[in-house]
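Input chain follows. Return structure tokens only.
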Amino acid sequence: MNAWFWSAVVLLFGLVPCAVVALRGNSINRLLGLEMGAMIITLEMVLLSEAFNNSNFLDLPLCLALLSFGGGLVFVRFVERWL
């Protein structure tokens, strides 16, 4: 157990407000909760790859960061007809 692991554990509590916002509210708030949750999960994966001292694990957060942005754009395109 090192400082990287404990910072990842503390950052995990940041997902609770994102989940509350994503489960309640209108479409814009849900999108904000989704994007913020994706950013926190990406940072979480980077911290865990440093905690386990394995640089091979950095590929997955990079892909998640790129795909979550694209997924957010698809979500906006899907719900724009109701806004």
